[in-house]
Amino acid sequence: MGQNGRVALFLADEQALFRQGLARQLSLYPDLDILGEAASDEEALAALQRLPPCVMIVCSLSLNPYQGVVRKVHHHLPAGSILAVADVKDPEAIFQAASSGAEALLPRGTGAESWAQTVRDVHGGGHPIDQDLAENPEVARRFLDEFKELFSRPGLTSLLIELSPLEREVLRRLAGWMSLEEIGLSLQTTPRDLLRHLTSIRRKLEANTGAQETVLALWGDKEERK
Question: Within a 10 A sphere around the Cβ of 50, how many other Cβ atoms?
Fold first, then answer.
């Protein structure tokens, strides 16, 4: 939280006009507190050393989502949240946002009121990105495939003790190559709730140093293959 119970915000985006304009708009809301801005990964990560634990980070996807600030924010500031920015909210942007661990994704052209409401939603524990995945089946399947590849890597199974019994059941069925629909039927839950569990699992693992190294190695391999 910021001062007087307000939601603390830190804006990280390389486009100064957008970043400064958004800061001015959000500063008009009495329940939001702008702590600062950054124009690069390095500036944003340096600011983590002095930010309070409940800060909201608003971050552009162009700041290297796989190995950059998004994942490192979750690792160094696990109580914080990520609201990602994209030029266009298309399937690729949704996939990158979900894979990098962001709780929400908004396009640059979003109005101030929608920005403010999404900030409040994410700060309150919401994960609008799950709804984006649920509404884009092809993106959701791609996200699941990435997750299966992640858990085929050695060194993660010992960390499953950190997960809830339901999260472990979701992973057990996923490891058996069950579809999202099949897992939902077997656990009597909805695809959207399953996606919410998967994003929760990813955040828990990335808060663990050993798991984070494995995750970053996976994304690094993918970047090298492009």
Answer: 8
Query: Is residue 150 within 8 Å of residue 163, measured between CB atoms?
Result: no
> Could you report the per-residue pLDDT of 63-118, keeping only the tens digit for each?
555 455 676 777 667 778 889 888 888 888 888 888 777 889 999 889 999 999 99
88-116 burial, b for 16+ CB within 10 Å, e for fewer? ebeeebbbbbbbbbbbbbbeeeeeeeebb
Answer whether 199's CB lies under 8 Å from 98's CB.
Answer: yes
pTM, rounded to two decimals: 0.73
| Other beta carbons less than 10 A from residue 8's beta carbon | 21
Distance CA(61)–CA(119), nearest Å, equals: 17
**Residues 170, 178: Cα–Cα separation, whole Å:** 10
Whose tokens are 């915000």? That residue is 9
Which band of pLDDT confidence, cut at 50, 70 and 90, is reported for residue 218?
A: very low
Strand boundaries in 132-208, DSSP class E: none
Dihedral of CA atoms 214, 218, 224, 226 in degrees, nearest 10, equals -160
Domains of the chain, each with CATH number or no CATH: 3-126 (3.40.50.2300), 137-225 (1.10.10)
